[in-house]
Amino acid sequence: MREKIILVCTECLSRNYTTTKNKQTSKERLELNRYCSTCNKHTLHKESK
């Protein structure tokens, strides 16, 4: 069972990406380096609540 999650930029706090993850196998929050169009650079994006 995969659930939709939203990734938020840690610098400007904009909600840029949506993705899915399996909550049964990965309990911790997802963290990815993605491109932020607001910051115009690659930044760390974390899973929102």
From TrEMBL:
One of its GO terms (molecular function) is structural constituent of ribosome. Keywords: Ribonucleoprotein, Ribosomal protein. InterPro entries: Ribosomal_bL33, Ribosomal_bL33_sf, Ribosomal_zn-bd. It holds the Pfam family Ribosomal_L33. GO terms for biological process: translation. Gene3D superfamilies: Ribosomal protein L33 (2.20.28.120). HAMAP family: Ribosomal_bL33. Belongs to the bacterial ribosomal protein bL33 family. NCBIfam families: PRK00504.1, PRK00595.1, rpmG_bact. This is Large ribosomal subunit protein bL33. The gene is rpmG.
